[in-house]
Design goal:
- By secondary structure, the chain is an alpha/beta fold.
- It is built from 5 helices and 5 strands; from the N terminus they run αβαβαβαββα.
- The chain folds into 2 domains: about 1-20 and about 245-284, Helix Hairpins (Orthogonal Bundle), CATH 1.10.287; about 20-245, Pyruvate Kinase, Chain: A, domain 1, CATH 3.40.1380.10.
- It is about 60% helix and about 15% strand.
- Helix 2 links the parallel strand 1 and strand 2.
- Helix 4 (about 140-155) crosses helix 5.
Length: about 280
């Protein structure tokens, strides 16, 4: 009985220590989530303006002369966003499940984040490239990745680009989403509110619209990739906050159960001692 009480006390201390850790991680994740949401919202201002410009120029260009809009046979590269850290619930497993569902093994994959690399190798996917994210990944890092991808696209090494990221809906909802970026289709262009179009006057393009489009597309792709990374990172922090909140609640419930068992064990020991004392007194 004494050993049982000692074991219960030790376990209660252990769970309480774990609860402090998960609670601290929840607070950190909440703070990071708020900062990341601000970054995401600020980026939308730049992205929307760029998309408006792109749409306006595209409407005045001869599509046949733009290689980024031409459908070609060949391999499609998928850029995938996962996390570098764990303890974020089903965030990474949902993305990896989506990979298995939508990406054939013979198609190249560029992985951003360390959590999916070993899984991709085990499942015989072709790694086109990899990049660790961290919290300090900048637009410059994404630009370098985009430049490498654009070079591969123009050389014919790949004939398409799609991105698999986690779409941030709200702090409780985020879902793996696959978007096709190259060749450019209407899928990624109509998400602009016409009322926000500041370029609603007639414009004479200099140089011509086709030349401008070919210069704008790399910027357009960079902006999209950065926007999707911001959404994925925001979703990661939201998933981690929720996972740590659940872990803290579970720890609290477990502590209550263990304390109850400890008190029952202690009460049982006291009752047994009283019974032994009474029995001894009666024997005298």
């Amino acid at each position: 009985m004494a050993q049982n009480k000692v074991a219960l006390k030790r376990r209660i201390r252990s769970v309480r220590a774990t609860k402090k850790i998960t609670n601290a991680m929840e607070l950190i994740a909440t703070s990071k989530l708020q900062r990341q949401k601000q970054k995401m919202e600020l980026n939308r201002v730049y992205a929307n303006t760029l998309f408006q410009t792109f749409n306006r120029v595209l409407g005045n260009a001869n599509i046949q002369e733009i290689p980024y809009l031409t459908q070609r046979e060949g391999k499609t590269l998928t850029l995938v966003y996962v996390s570098d850290m764990g303890l974020c619930g089903g965030y990474n497993s949902n993305i990896l499940s989506k990979i298995k569902e939508v990406i054939p093994n013979d198609e190249p994959v560029f992985i951003v984040g360390s959590k999916g690399r070993s899984w991709l190798r085990r499942n015989n996917y072709q790694l086109f490239g990899e990049l660790e994210t961290g919290d300090n990944l900048s637009y410059g890092h994404i630009s370098k990745v985009a430049d490498k991808i654009m070079d591969a696209y123009l050389s014919g090494e790949i004939t398409g680009l799609q991105v698999l990221y986690t779409k941030f809906v709200n702090t409780m909802t985020f879902e793996p989403t696959l978007m096709t970026l190259l060749p450019i289709t209407e899928e990624i262009l109509p998400n602009i509110d016409p009322s926000e179009d500041v370029l609603n006057q007639d414009i004479i393009f200099e140089p011509d619209a086709v030349t401008l489009i070919n210069q704008l597309v790399p910027m357009f792709i960079q902006s999209l990739l950065y926007s999707y990374w911001l959404e994925s990172k925001t979703s990661e922090h939201a998933a981690r906050r929720m996972a740590m909140d659940n872990a803290t609640d579970n720890a609290e419930e477990l502590i209550e159960e263990l304390v109850l068992k400890y008190n029952q064990s202690r009460q049982s020991a006291i009752t047994q001692e009283i019974t032994e004392i009474v029995a001894g007194a009666e024997a005298l």
